[in-house]
Each structure stands twice: as C-alpha cells, then as structure tokens.
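Entry 12.
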Amino acid sequence: MEINIGRIKPHLFTLPGKKERKSLIELLRKRDAVLQGAPNLVTRINAFNYMLASTGLFRKPLKTTMIAMMDLIGDRYIYPIIAFASKGINVLGKADFRMQSPPCPFTVYYDGVDSVMFEEFPSGEALRDLAKELEKRNVLIKNPQFRENFKKEIKRKFAPKVWHKDLSKAVIIDSPDASLIGKNFYEIAEEKNMHPVDVFLDTIIQYDKKIRWTTTIANDRKEKYKKLYNFPYNLISFSDAGAHLNNMAFYNFPLKMIKTVQESIDKGTPIMTMEKCIWRLTKEQGDWFNLDCGYLAKGKIADLVIIDPTKFNNITENVEIEPIEEFGHYERLVNRNNGVVSRVLVGGKTIFENEKFIDNYAKSQKYGRFLEKAL
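Predicted 3D structure (tokens):
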C-alpha cells in the first residue's frame, strides 16, 4: 500500500461568514447576551476579532469571553501579550471582554495520538485524519519523508502552539511493555540510540492507543500565579474536562486555587486574601454572567459547598479512572479530594455528605434549577 503524503490535506470546516457572524453579534448585543469562543489553534488571529466585537465605542459593549489565557510552556510570550491586549481593549476600547484562565497546572493525557493537540501542525493532523484507517496511517508513519516533515514541524520554536511538542516532557504512564512506564520518549531514545521522534512514531505503530502518556502544557510556574489570579480581565474558569473525558481532569480547579492561596497565606506571601479568592470563584462570575447565583444573601437560593481546610493536603494533581455507570461503564478521568468537601447543598437540600451522594440524587427526585439570566 502506498500513500502520497502530498495529497494529505487538513480537515475542512464550514465556518460562519462575515454576514452570519455580524448578525449573531448584533443579536447578542441587543439581548445583553454573552459571546464565547476560542482562537484558532495555530494562527490565533481571530482572537482579536473577539476583542474588537466586545468594544463599546459609540455602542453598547458586548460581553465576550474567550479561552484560554495560560502560561504556556511552548509559548511563553503569548500570556503577557494576551494580558496586555485584554487590558487595552477593556480600558481603551470600553469593552466587556474576559479571558478564561485555569488556576492550576494544565496537564493532559494522551492515548497514542488521540488528541486535538496534534492538529496544530500538518503531520500531526495527517495522523489524526487516518485515526480510523490504521493500516494507511501506519504506512504513512513508515514513510521517510513523512518522518522528516514530522521532525521539522515538531521542533519549530517560534511557531504558535499550545502543546510544547517536547518529547522529553512526555511521560509514559501505561503500556503493554511495562519497561516503558515512567520514562519519557527522550530517555527511551537514548537507550535505543534513536531519534526521539522515531521512537515515538514506532511506538504509535506498535501500540496505537494502548500507549498512554501525559504532559503538562501550561501553568507549571507557581511564581506566575499571583498575576494570573489577580488579573482583572479574566475569569477563573475553563476546565474543559467534561469535553475531553480521557484527556483532562480539572473538575476540582476551584479547590486547587483555594489550596494554593491558603498555602501562600500560610507562608506569609499571600497571593490574595481568601475572601477575594472565594469571590473570584463564585460571586464575580455570577455577576458577570448576570446569573442569580454565586453568593449568600437573605432571600437567595441556598446553593452551598462546605469544605474542610484541614484536609487540603488531599487536593493533589493525581487523577484516577472511574467508569460512568449510566453510559455503559465508559471510563473517564476523575479527581479525588477525600474529605475536603464535607457537604453540598442545592436549593437548601443536602445532596452530598460523608463522601457520598444521597440515595435518590439524580434518580427519583429533582434538585437544582436551570440558571437563567437575571432580569
């Protein structure tokens, strides 16, 4: 079987035209709604379109939020640039624009090349295109020209990227070959006297999704958290774990932020007060999205999470695999914070206590409500 690598093309998406986009923005502005979007993974140019749409010069500003402002390992310059642009568009352009920022290390997990991150460069996207045609994909991987292209693209230092593409930071956590577990691809390459990319691609041919590896792509420097946590034009948000069940687990990012802030207070170098930390995670966001939630007040609905600060050591970066019973025991990544959350109340009714949900939760009795925009 032969594959002409020159004929492999990236995915084609039908994007909204200028007229459609303009109509959508006008409708959202009229209704005081929120525009949320994501920049192009490669060029990021459309990020400025979102910022400009939010401006309020001679018109009503449009609430706009975009993912994600992080301290990227592979693109250290992008965080200060986006922070500067966000501040400028809000102050000078009278916009109502917010970036979204996860407050913890952004660690991802991969099964082979099963990740959107590979779509940042042509060779990686070609592998993703053939994900369901393994025979063709493996022929492509064995092609010397393809390997040369992959090596050139993966080491481009100044190309915009989310994934750092550094195989020395890619640690294998599961493999049919137990001797590989705990090693990164550079270490294996040194043992075999091979190029790391060749080792990586050979491993994909041999094991496909059975080779599981992990890497942190952003927010690895805690010394940067003070600016990130206190930046006035971001929202402490963006888990994305619910959209990538096998690749990410940030469900507990509010607890991670609370722990980090408390540790800074204990050391005498506070990132912020604990009151501000809780406000950033709750009321600030409820108010910005114009939702009737996020704070305690007389007459308000009692949605409460009670946490035990003596158990903060149980908040870690570790993840576990847990099946979803309702979806045929489909396995996904989860966070464990044993004992940290003492009790959860929704609408004044307890739904979680003593490390377990009440018996009828999500089965025979309705809890919670649809959050509508406050009038």
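Annotation: The radius of gyration is 23 Å. Residues 1-14 have pLDDT under 50 and may be disordered.
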